[in-house]
Amino acid sequence: MRVEIDRRSGFCFGVIKAIKSAENELKTTDKLYCLGDIVHNGMEVERLEKMGLQSVSRDEYMQMKDCKVLIRAHGEPPETYEHAKKNNIELIDATCPVVLTLQEKVKGSYESNKDKDGQVVIYGKKGHAEIIGLDGQIENKAIVLESINDVSQIDFSRPVSLYSQTTKRVEDFYAIADKVKSSMQPGVGLEIKDSICRQVSNRVPHLKQFAKEFDVVLFVAGHKSSNGWYLYTICKEENPRTHHVARTSEIDPAWLDGAESVGICGATSTPNWLMEEIAEWINQRNPS
Ligand code: SF4
């Protein structure tokens, strides 16, 4: 059986930066907290936990003081920084530069349209850490659209600045943008800010091709990874024998029945070592 790992899958630079920051700190500190899971991949979280990284929830963080806390790539709202200042918490800030820039832009749109009663609208998932961080920049006034059906929440007689969470589908964002555009009242301002990170969307054409080249595709990603589900869907559309797995124990050996080739790929939050582990698991059961 031919088993191949997609060399373009795996961590994006934002995640690499966050994990390197954690590993560097853990060389000299025996206890480092992380606000939320450092990456949406349970296996990588477990690996770093063994080195001394402990995930804490937002509620737990708000009770903490006198410690070191890592901020992951998704970014945080201003209240996180204010709490650290007041409570002697040293922050290791690993917010992805792409997210930091987006936070600044969202804030800029909000400030510049405040006197015109403007609305900042973000296509994303309510409660997602990145959305909490963005909303926090603008006094939690963002209108978050989870789908095109939510555009009715917008007041089309007031100016709109439309953004996207970095990991959303480009086509879905532009479908929403078109609907908003056609619904705006004449003469009312609309700015469409495509803020989707190309670290995710640029992988789409390549993954489409990759998925077609194998009898079976195993897409490796944590169940909480939104870009994981997105990229998995892309592969599944190209190859119906694509399966989403977070670890080897989730593989059903029957999936491989009759297959002569297996492609392994993953999300921007999937560690390479995990894809290697999965390849090894298959090779041991299906020696070539
Ligand atoms: S997907 Fe893009 S925005 Fe998100 S962490 Fe990676 S590089 Fe940063």
Automatic annotation (TrEMBL):
Reactions accelerated catalytically: dimethylallyl diphosphate + 2 oxidized [2Fe-2S]-[ferredoxin] + H2O = (2E)-4-hydroxy-3-methylbut-2-enyl diphosphate + 2 reduced [2Fe-2S]-[ferredoxin] + 2 H(+); isopentenyl diphosphate + 2 oxidized [2Fe-2S]-[ferredoxin] + H2O = (2E)-4-hydroxy-3-methylbut-2-enyl diphosphate + 2 reduced [2Fe-2S]-[ferredoxin] + 2 H(+)
Catalytic activity, EC: 1.17.7.4
Pathway this chain belongs to: Isoprenoid biosynthesis; isopentenyl diphosphate biosynthesis via DXP pathway; isopentenyl diphosphate from 1-deoxy-D-xylulose 5-phosphate: step 6/6; Isoprenoid biosynthesis; dimethylallyl diphosphate biosynthesis; dimethylallyl diphosphate from (2E)-4-hydroxy-3-methylbutenyl diphosphate: step 1/1
The keyword Membrane appears for this protein: no
Binding site for isopentenyl diphosphate: 40, 74, 128, 225-227, 269
Gene Ontology MF term list: 4 iron, 4 sulfur cluster binding; 4-hydroxy-3-methylbut-2-enyl diphosphate reductase activity; metal ion binding
InterPro entries: LytB/IspH (IPR003451)
Residues passing through the membrane, by range: none
Residues that hold (2E)-4-hydroxy-3-methylbut-2-enyl diphosphate according to the record: 40, 74, 128, 166, 225-227, 269
UniProt feature coiled coil, ranges: none
Pfam family, one: LYTB
Cofactor note: Binds 1 [4Fe-4S] cluster per subunit.
Enzyme class at the top of the EC tree: oxidoreductase
Annotated keywords: 4Fe-4S, Iron, Iron-sulfur, Isoprene biosynthesis, Metal-binding, Oxidoreductase
Cofactors (names): [4Fe-4S] cluster
Catalytic residues (positions): 130 (proton donor)
NCBIfam families assigned to the protein according to its UniProt record, in alphabetical order: ispH_lytB, PRK01045.1-1
Family: Belongs to the IspH family.
Protein name as annotated: 4-hydroxy-3-methylbut-2-enyl diphosphate reductase
Organism expressing this protein natively: Mariniphaga anaerophila
